[in-house]
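Supplementary Note 3. Input sequence used for the single-chain structure prediction.
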Amino acid sequence: MSFRFKAIAAAALSLATLATGGLAQAADLPVKAAKKAPDLPFFLVIDDRVSFSWMPKGTDPGIWSVRPDGSINGKTAKQVYSFTHFDLWAYGTNFFTISMFKSGQNDPTNPCTNAGVVFNPGTGVATAANCSGATEIYGLFRSTFGWNELFNTKAFTAGPLHNISFEVGMDANTENNYLAPAKRDLVAGLQFAFDLPYKGYINVAPLMYWEFLNHNAFTQCGGGFAGAVPGFSCNSDGNVSYRPTWAVEINYYMDLGFLPPNMQFWSISGRAGWYGPKGDSNGLPALSGIGRLSTASKTELNSEPIRLTFDASKAVWGDKYSHFVDLWVAYRYWQNKFGLDHNAMPGVCTIAATGQSTNSCTESTVYGGVTVKF
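The predicted structure, written as discrete structure tokens, is reproduced below.
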């Protein structure tokens, strides 16, 4: 998840070298001894930002309602509040973001299992309720360690290749709906950083992905939806762990430098992550005692292929305030959300009785927001 602040770091190091050389010359003169050059700070760059965005067609797997005409509504509007931190130090980068997603009532809080419905597993009767929209907290961390910096060389810079790095990270979330997910995962691998025109970059990271803990209330023993045999038809605590799998994460950024000078306030960026099948989506060999359902996880694509950003602060106050206030619009596409097969998973991605899609396991939406640097 490295952003291209290497040029800033190089400039800082260059200025430090020039300052040291100047002081050495001054020491040869018959004047007062020169002061020692100040050490470089531990963090060469620190960048903190907050964002607000609105997503009109978000989804949450298994959460849907029926419209008066009988069609399925698996979409929900979401407000997103985010904090993002990036820093650059001598050997690499650190990137951290935490977001709060506030859904509309079509993605309800516990005890509703679907919009406006509380289901009583003991009696099989659904009763009306008025649950507010769910709130999800999601955090992501990525760290890189550059080979050029670790080995004090330029051997890993050639042509468009800027650097190769070790990369490690983790993700975690929690949500207060009936499913009550509590995802925990680790990633580790390499990152290949390439330069693009107009101060741009593209990073490609092949990784190992291990989701070692999550929670699924629908598989929990005693919940009424799963069976009664721990480890076979239900999970004793609802927690599910998966096998390690592969992942590829890509992100890019580029200024639209080909525009006329009086229009150079625009940039494009994007990201994509592919995560391989991680085993049975329920972590169970059978569910509800009716034999094995189609619960095999599928390759997941979580992407924002394009974001168009307008540098509002640069347009109003000049280059000195570039990217202090950004306005942006983006397209988000998430297929097989959380690894769930959007063509299967009865009761979640499809309606068990009819096979009709709930439209909740694929997220496809345009959304926009504002980002402020502080």
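The longest strand covers residues 43-58. The mean pLDDT is 87.
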